[in-house]
Amino acid sequence: FLLKVMRDLNPEGFPSSGSLLSADGKLQTLLRGLVEHFKGRAGSGEAVARKLLDRAGSSGGVNPAQLTQLVIWATLDNELPKQQQYVEICQQLNQSSAAAVMEIAEQFSAGDFEFQFE
Questions:
Q1: 27: helix, strand or coil
Q2: Confidence label for 31 from pLDDT (cuts 50, 70 and 90)
Q3: Among 13, 17, 15, 57, which residue's Cα sits nearest to residue 35?
Q4: Spatial distance between the Cα atoms of 45 and 43, rounded to a whole number of angstroms
Q5: What pLDDT was estimated at residue 21?
Q6: Nearest CA among 83, 63, 67 for reference residue 75
Q7: Are 45 and 75 in contact (CB under 8 A)?
Q8: What angle do CA 105, 82, 32 make, to 5 degrees?
Q9: Residue 111 backbone zone (phi > 0: left; psi -120 to 50: alpha; other: beta)
């Protein structure tokens, strides 16, 4: 699902690899695309994406909550045509959900987003 979100946002940055790709292959595609998406941007998005990519390569899995937060930040931190659509969706969230998204955005943009990696 998260890969589909990123393909909707940026089809060139997250090209379709075919429906026969394994779950691990889709995860690797998503994480590589996120590393590229955040490359050179301010904040901690690129560093977190790299850590998740390394973890996925060594253990075969990542924390879904961490990955989801990174994708949420990617939908907001870009200059792509569909960015406004995702901002509008966030504006329609209830108060507690909107607060959670704002916290994710503030932590990533400040560069102080830290995950606990086991």
A1: helix
A2: very high
A3: 13
A4: 6
A5: 61
A6: 83
A7: no
A8: 65
A9: left
